């Protein structure tokens, strides 16, 4: 199997360097994808075309709970360019394999601001639409233009606009499998394990306007006595905020926020506040209320706790970390330990607040 000389298939590849949790696991077989022709060559081999496939980007939003049996397609499509400039926006494109933060830095240096609030998010450009990354008041969908992808069954290239990506909070069409029978009787389109994203285009609005109004940013504005920051200042502040409260995956393995911030009804929120007046919450436009999952976890006493070598980060309870990363000879937390810790947190938050926290990374 996988002995096609035309393809560079690597076997038994350690995945520890390719996931930001630095969990030890292996890919039985791995192919590096540098463009659509690599996918087409792969699909031309009937044996390879038939096997299940797993698309790996920067590995910043996955938990590996064992060796990966599916053929791992490691996306290494590179390149960054200005596609065109219109009266309203710069349309900028990047290959899916480009590092997200390096791309954000490049756009600013090249004079195309607009991504600064999302600086320093770990991962690749190709993974950014999958979970609709976001930070400090800006989500990917606010800056998205379109993307090119390839169908892993047919080898056909296709382009999707924002509506077709069905973006939601840390969600998109790429996180869902296709289902033929939904409650409404429609065919729900899902592209999980079906599409490999090759290139993403962003529309960076002109004229640039800062996105402010987030508590941590407001604090920086007050500290620097600056009411009208430029894009570079915002970028520097976002980097400083993230470095202060989020662990650097190169130093301590992690996958960013491990849970989504849950949304509840105003009644349920009032009920919790009656018992826990300090509950951190944000009222949404439709009257429902978003709760800070980090606060809920913290209130249950989890900050700093561990299961084996999987732990809850001391400075931000929403982030689970691999305490074994960097230890000489240590193999670190297993995916099983991370999931055991996650389940224990979910149980105690459910018992105390009646809320089931949803995990944000994809569990493999
Ligand atoms: N809080 C606590 N204790 C904690 C953690 C948080 O009380 O241990 C409180 C904070 O004091 C704050 C509130 O919870 O009042 C919210 O915390 P924070 O501002 O750090 O943001 P978050 O809701 O925890 C979200 C995103 C982050 C993003 C930040 C900034 C999700 C799941 N997470 O975190 O995204 O960087 O807002 O916009 O929506 C990621 O997705 O990986 C990620 C890091």
Describe the protein in words.
With 364 residues, this protein is of the alpha+beta class. The chain folds into 3 domains: 10-75, Uridine Diphospho-n-acetylenolpyruvylglucosamine Reductase, domain 2; 80-212, 2-Layer Sandwich (Uridine Diphospho-n-acetylenolpyruvylglucosamine Reductase, domain 3), CATH 3.30.465; 248-363, Alpha-Beta Complex (Uridine Diphospho-n-acetylenolpyruvylglucosamine Reductase, domain 1). 25% of the residues lie in helices and 25% in strands. It contains 10 helices and 20 strands. The strands form 6 sheets. Strands 6-7-12-10-11 form a 5-stranded antiparallel β-sheet. Strands 1-2-5-3 form a 4-stranded mixed β-sheet. A hairpin with a 2-residue loop joins β17 (306-307) and β18 (310-312). The model has no long low-confidence stretch (mean pLDDT 93).
How is the biggest beta sheet arranged? 5 strands, antiparallel
Query: What structural class is derived from the secondary structure elements?
Result: alpha+beta
- Assembly type of the shown chains? single chain
The CATH architecture of the largest domain: 2-Layer Sandwich
Number of domains: 3
* Count of helical stretches: 10
Q: Helix and strand succession?
A: EEHHEEEEEHEEHEEHEHHEEHEEHEEEHE
- Rg on CA atoms, Å: 21 Å
Strand content: 15-25%
Number of strands: 20
Mean pLDDT: 93
Ligands (ions, cofactors included): uridine-diphosphate-2(N-acetylglucosaminyl) butyric acid
CATH classification, class level of the largest domain: Alpha Beta
Report the helical percentage. 25-40%
Question: How widely separated are the two ends?
Answer: 22 Å
Shape: globular
Unreliable stretches covering 5 or more consecutive residues: none
- Widest sheet: strand order? 6-7-12-10-11
For this structure, the CATH topology of the largest domain is: Uridine Diphospho-n-acetylenolpyruvylglucosamine Reductase, domain 3
């Amino acid at each position: 199997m996988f002995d096609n000389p035309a393809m560079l298939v690597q076997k038994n590849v350690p995945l520890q360097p390719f996931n930001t949790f630095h969990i030890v696991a292996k890919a039985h077989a791995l192919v590096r994808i540098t463009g659509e022709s690599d996918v087409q060559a792969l699909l031309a081999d009937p044996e390879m075309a038939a096997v299940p496939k797993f698309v790996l980007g920067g590995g910043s939003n996955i938990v590996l709970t064992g060796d990966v049996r599916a053929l791992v397609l490691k996306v290494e499509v590179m390149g960054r360019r200005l596609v065109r400039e219109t009266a309203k926006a710069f349309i900028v494109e990047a290959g899916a394999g480009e590092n997200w933060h390096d791309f954000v830095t490049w756009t600013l240096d090249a004079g195309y601001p607009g991504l600064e609030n999302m600086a320093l998010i770990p991962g690749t450009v190709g993974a950014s639409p999958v979970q609709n990354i976001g930070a400090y008041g800006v989500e990917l969908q606010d800056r998205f233009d379109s993307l090119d992808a390839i169908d892993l069954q047919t080898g056909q290239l296709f382009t999707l606009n924002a509506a077709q990506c069905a973006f939601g909070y840390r969600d998109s069409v790429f996180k869902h499998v296709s289902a033929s029978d939904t409650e409404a009787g429609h065919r729900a389109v899902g592209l999980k394990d079906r599409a490999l994203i090759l290139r993403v285009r962003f529309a960076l609005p002109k004229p640039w306007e800062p996105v402010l109004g987030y508590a941590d940013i407001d604090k920086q504005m007050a500290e620097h006595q600056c009411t009208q920051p430029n894009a570079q200042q915002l970028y520097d502040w976002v980097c400083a905020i993230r470095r202060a409260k989020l662990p650097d995956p190169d130093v301590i393995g992690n996958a960013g926020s491990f849970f989504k911030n849950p949304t509840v009804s105003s009644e349920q929120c009032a009920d919790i506040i009656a018992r826990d007046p300090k509950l951190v919450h944000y009222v949404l436009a439709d009257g429902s209320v978003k709760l800070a999952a980090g606060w809920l976890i913290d209130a249950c006493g989890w900050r700093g706790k561990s299961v084996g070598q999987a732990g809850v980060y001391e400075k931000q309870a929403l982030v689970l970390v691999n305490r074994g990363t960097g230890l000489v000879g240590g193999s670190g937390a297993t995916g099983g330990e991370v999931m055991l810790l996650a389940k224990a947190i979910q149980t105690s938050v459910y018992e105390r607040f009646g809320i089931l926290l949803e995990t944000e990374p994809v569990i493999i």
